[in-house]
Design goal:
The complex is a heterodimer of chains A (167) and B (1244). By secondary structure, chain A is mainly α. Chain A has a domain of 76 residues. In chain A, β3 and β4 form a beta hairpin. The radius of gyration of chain A is 27 Å and the shape is elongated. Chain B contains 49 helices and 25 strands. Chain B starts with 13 loop residues before the first strand and ends with a helix. The chains are: A mainly alpha (167), B alpha+beta (1244). Chains A and B meet through α1, α2, α3 and α4 of A and α16, α17, α18, α19 and α22 of B. Chain A: This is RRM domain-containing protein. Chain A: Keywords: Coiled coil.
Amino acid sequence: MGSSAAQADYAAFLEKFIPNYMGPRNIAECALVEMEDVRQAKAVLSEISQFPFMMSGMPRPVRARPAQVEMFDERPIKPGRRIQCRWLEENDPDFEIAREMKRLTNKHAAEAAFLQKKQLQEEEKLAKQQLDTLKGNYKKYEMVDSIMADGTARRLARHYNLRVAED
Amino acid sequence: MASSDDEADVLPRCVSNYYFEDDEDEPISFSVLPIQWREGDIQDCVKEQIFLHGVTDNGLRKIYKHVVAWRFDLSNMNPEILVLSKENNWIKLQKPRKSFEDIIRTIMVTVRCLHFLKKNPEASGKSLWDHLSKVFSLYEVRPSQNDLVDHIPLISEAVNRDDTLAKSKFLYTFLKEKPGKRKLSDEDCKKTAMSGFIVYDLNEEEEDESNKVTGVYDHVCAFCDNGGNILSCEGRCIRSFHATKEAGAESNCVSLGFSSKKEVDELPIFVCKNCKYKQHQCFACGKLGSSDKFSGAEVFKCVSATCGYFYHPHCVAKLLHQENKVAAEELEKKIAAGGSFTCPIHKCYVCKRGENKKDHQLQFAVCRRCPKSYHRKCLPRKISFGEGKGIVTRAWEDLLPNRILIYCLKHEIDNELRTPVRDHIKFPGVMTITEKRKVPVKEKKKSSGYKDKDLSKTEKLALDDSCRETALQVAKQNQKSSSLAKLGNAKNSKKVVSISDISRKGKVNDSARKLPKENANLVLTGLDRSSATDENKYSLGDRLFDLMKRSGQLKPTKQDALDGNINKSVAVKPHKKKLKSAPSSLDANTERRLLTLMRDAASSITLEEIKEKHKVPSSHSYSSKNNVEKIITIGKLEGSVEAIRTAFGKLEEGCSLEDAEAVCEPDILRQIFRWKNMLQVYLAPFLNGNRYTSYGRHFTKMEKIEEIVDKLHWYVQNNDMIVDFCCGANDFSILMKKKLEETGKICSYKNYDIFQPKNDFNFEKRDWMTVQPKELPAGSRLIMGLNPPFGVRASLANKFIDKALEFNPKLLILIVPPETQKLDEKKRPYDLIWEDNQSLSGKSFYLPGSVGENDKQMDQWNSITPPLSLWSHSHWTAKHKSIAEKHGHISKQKEGSDMEKNPLENRIHDHPADGHDRYGDTSVLMDDLSLQSDSEKFRGGAVVSKCHVERSPSSKGYKENLENDHGKNQPDKTSTRKRKRDKGKHRKRMGQVSSEKKRDSGKLHHSLSSVVERRFLSESQHSKAREMPSHAEIGENGHQHLEPRTSGSRMQFAAGYGGSQVNIPKEMGRKNNMSGNEPYSSGTDRGLVDGSPGHMRDSSDRLSYRSYDTRVEEGFTRDTDFRLQGHHYGLHDPHPPGNNYFTGHDGPYGDIRSMPWTYGHPGSAADFSYRMNTSAMQRYAPQLDELNHPRPMNTFTSELPMMNATDFYNRRASQPEYQSNRMDFAPGPRRPYSHQSSVGWLNE
C-alpha cells in the first residue's frame, strides 16, 4: 500500500508495473496507478511533487506524472501506420541507411548503458552520504543517550543543583 | 442624573462597556456612521442600522440604542467620541467592551492622532507614534500609519475643517503621499506581524537554545581569532575556521581556502585535517603528534568540555607542576597512560583559582596562542583593551562568550595583522607543502608579514587540498590538489579531472559543447527514464529489454549484479544479434561528452530551486537541521560526554565542585540535555519510524468525531460556518453536516489541510496559516476546530490556535495536548465552556497511511490524553454556557473524577442507566457536602442539579420517548428503539431523536426563569406531577410516611436529598418520592408544577410512568429505563403503572433500608445489563467498578426479597434522581432531613 498521505487516503488501484526498458530489473520502475477520477489524480500528482513520498519515516524518490499513451507498449497501433519488415540485400539502396540506423541504435544503447551506470553510481553515492549523515547523527544521539541512560548526567546535575527538565 | 430619575425614559449621557452591532448582530465600528462635524449637519447615508449596546449609570443600567451618527471632540484633555441616538441624544462613549476594542481600534487611533496633532501641530511622526503607542499600550498591535490609512477621508475632512490640524506637517505629508504609502505600509504590517508571529511560536525555544549553545563554545576563527561566518570542525579540536576568503576578509584571514560559500554549504560535514588524521598540535610546544587514543597517542586532549587543546604529557605536566618535578613526572605518566587532566588554561595564571563565568571579576582572559589564562582581576596591566600611544591592544571582549580574548605578552603583535603572526596552525597532510614553501613563507614573515596575500596563498593551497579531500564528492578538483591528495580511485579521478579541466578552462569547452547538442536528447533520456520510454522505446528500449530478458534467461542468477549485468548485456548483444558494429564500450571521447552532459544537467538543478518547488507547509517549516548538524558536532559531543563522565567521577572521588566545574561547566550539562531533545526531535522520524509515514499526522477516529459532533451540534446555529483548519480525512465537517441537517440547521463548511483528503467536501488545499481573515465570514458565524497538529510541546497547536483566534470565531472546539496554552490565557481570552479530558483517551487516533504488521491501520495510543475542549468568544459565553448546561455538558468537570468519566451526550442518551451510576456518584459526593454548611449543601445541590442536567438530556429523551409511547401506547416501540441504541452504533441517531423530543418537551415545560433550572424543574415537575397520582394510589403507608416529612415541604425533601447523599438518599428518595408526591400535590410544589399540570392530568397511568420518566430526567429515566430495561433486557415487562407504583412504593416503605441498596442496586443492575448490551461497556467499566460493585452485592440479595423488584429497582433508581430534583428546589433544609433519615442509614 502506498503510504504517502495522499495515496493512503485515496482509493488507489495499482494497475500494473510498466517495465523499464532502460536496464535490468532492479532499477527504478514505473507503475500505473489509477485513481477514481481526474480530480483525485491531479491531487496525487501535486501532492507527490510537493512533498516527499514517505515510507516508514524515510522519504523515497517517487515521482508521479499523468499517464500517456506512449507509456504503454500494448497500446493500439496508430491508425494508418504499419510497420513493414523486409530483408535488404547488400546492393539495395537502403542497405547503407539501414546499417547506419542499426549502428546508431547500438551506439545509443551503449551510451544509455553508460549513463545508467553513472546514474546508479551517483545514486549510490548519495544514498551512502545520507546514510552516513544519519548514522552520524544517530551516533550523536546514542552518545548523549548513553550518559542519560546511566544516570551520570542526571546525578551530576544534582550535584550542580541544576534543574533539568525530565523528559 | 438624579434629576432625571423620575423621567420615564432616561436619556443616557455616557456609556461604557459598549459595543456596536449592525442589524445582523455583527459587531461593527461606529466609524461607518456618518460623522457630524457641526450641529445639525448630518448626512443621511446610513445603509445599515447600527445599535449601541452598553451599560450606563455606572453599570447599573443596560442600554440598547439605535444610533445614527457620531462625532468627536478634540478640545478636551482627552478626545471624546459621541454617538447620536435615534432620539437625537448624544451619548458619550467611555470604555468599550474588551472584545470590541479591536474593531474600533483604527478609528480610535485616528481620533487620538488628530487630538494629539491638534495639540501639537508641529509634532513629528515619531513623537506622534510614541505618544500613540503609549496610549494604546494595552493593544496587541502597535498603532501605525496603517491605522490611519483606513480613515484617510475622515482625516482629510478634519484637516479641511480645522485650521490647527491643517498646520500639522505630519498630516500634510501623510495625506499627500497616501496612495503609495498605503500599499507599502500594508505589506509591512503584514510582514512584521507574520514573522513576529512565527518567531514567537516556533523558534522561541530553538533560538534560545542556539544562543545558549553559542554561549558555551567560542566561535572565532582559529587562524585569525575573529568571528563572523565560520565553519566548525566536526572533530575533537572543536575549532572553527573561516571557510572562505570573503568570510575572513575583515581580519585578512588566510581562511580554509574554499572558493565559494556554496561549496562550503555543500559539505556534509567538515573535519579539519588535524582531526581527520588524528594529528594534533601540542598547544604548549606547537608540535604535531598523534592523538589517536587507540594507537600510540602522543598528545592528549584536555578533558574540559569546552577546551579543544591537546598536549604532550610532558609539556602539560611541566606547566601544571612548574616547581615540583616529581609531581610533574607522576602526572606525565598518568596522562600518558590515559588519565584525564585539565590544562593550565582552566586555572588563573596568577592566582591559580578557577573560573567563574557568572562573576564579572572572575571571568577568564584566555591567550589564544599559549595555555595561559588570567582572571579579569588578575590580568596584567600590559595586556590592554584600548589602543593608546605605544600601547598595543592585546585583549578583546565580546569575541569569546563570557571570556576575554587575549594574546599574552610572550607573543609579539604584528602591526598589520594586529594579531601575532599567524603561523600557529599546522595541518598534518599539508606538511610537505608547507615545508616546501617554508622558505618563502619565512621570508615573508620576516618582511614584517604584510605580504599576507602570498602567505595566504601558500597556506591556502595547502588547506585547499585538505578540505577538498574531505569533500570528496566535490568533483571540481584541480589537478594539483587531486594528485597531492592521493585520491584513492585513480581511474575515476583521472576521468573526472580531465573533464573538469575542460570545464574549468572554459575555452576548451566549445568543442565539448557542440557535440552534446546533437545528442542532447539522447542523454537527457538517459537521465529521465520516463521520457526515454516515450522516445526511444522502439528502437533502443525494446531491443535492450529483449536482450536483457534473454540474458536474464540465460543467466538468471546474474540478474542481480548491477553493473555486471549491463556489461554482459552489452557484451551479449553482438553474439545474439550479430551486430557487427555494436560498440561494447564507448570511446573516451564519447564518455567524456556524456559526463559533461551529466554534469551540466546536474548543475542545472540547484538546491534553491528544489526548495522553491517543495514549499513546506508552515507547520513543517522549521527544521533543526542546522542546529543539529552544524552545532552539535561529534567533537563537542564527545568532549562534553567525556567531561561529564570525568566531572562526575571527580565528584564521586570527593573532589571539590570547583574542580568538577573546571572539567564540565554546568552550562555544558544543561546543553547536553538540550541537545538530547534536539536530537530526539531531529531524529524522530527514524527513532519512531512508522509514525512519520504521513508527516506525523494523526487523525481522530470516526467514532470519536461522532461523539464530538453529537455534543457540538447544539451550539451551532443556522448559517454558521464550520471551519476545520486541519481537517485530515475531512470527517468532521461531513459528520457535522449530516448531524446538522438532521436537526434542520443549514450551515456552511470550510476545510483546510495541506494534504488533499479523499473526500474533498468543501475542501481547500491550503496552509491554514495563509488563510486571511477576510476570506471567512465574521467571527459571530464561525465555529472552528478541531484537531491541529500538536508539534513539539504543543508549539504547532498553539500556532494553529493563534491563527484561528485572528478570526474571532464564536466557538473553538479543540483537541490539543494539555500543555497547549489555554485560551483564557491569550491576549483576548476565550471562555471555557467545557473540557473533557477522558473521551479521547486510549486509541482515539490513528495514523493515516501507516500500516502495522497485519496491514491494518495503525492506531495511536495516547499516553497523555489530549482534552477535548470548547471555548467561546466572551461575547457569546453566556449563551453557550446555558446551552452547555441545558445539555449536560458542563457537569462533568465540576464533579469528581467519576463524573468526568461520564461522557458525552451520546452516552447519556444511550444509557439511561448511566443516570444511576452518576447518581450514585453524586450522592456519594453529596455526603461529604451535605453535612457541612449551607453553602456547601448548596453546592451539593448544584452538583446534583448538574447531574441532573447530564441526565436530563438522556432522561428527557427517554422521557419523551416514554411520553410518546404513552401517548401512543406503544411502549414497545420505544423500547425496541432503545434496544437498538444500546446495541451500539445506532445509538447516536437514537440519541438525536430523543434529544429532539427532549427539546419539544423542554419547551412545553419551560416556565421557570433560568433555562437550566427550567429543565430541572420541568422535569421534576413532571415527575412530581405524575408521581402525585401514583402516590395517591400508592396508598396509606406512603401517606403516613410522607406526611411527617411532607409537612416539611419539598424543602425537606430536598434536604433529604442533600442529606441523603449516600445510598441512603435513595431510600430517602423513595420515601421522599412517596411523601414527596404528596407534598407536591399538596401544592408546595405547585409553583414548580406549573408547567406540568397538564401533563399530570394527561394520564394518571402515565403519570406513574412518567414519574419514572420524569425522573428519568431526573430519576425517572428509571422508569423509562425501567421499561427500557424491561424491554431491552427483557427482565422487566412494561407493567401497568399501578403495579409498579404499588410495588415500588411498598418496597420503599416496607424495606426502607433495602431501598437504598436497592436503589443502588437497581441502578447498577440495570446498568449492568445495560452495559452488557451496549458496546459502551468498557467505558463505563471503571465506573462500574467503583460505584456499583459494592451495590451489586447488596442489590442482588435485596432484590430477591423484593420480588418482582425490577420495577422497584427502576423506581428506586429513579427516585434518587427525583430527590435530586428536589434538591434543586430547596437546597437549604436538607440537613435536618438528611440527618434524620440518613443518619440512621449511615449508621447502618
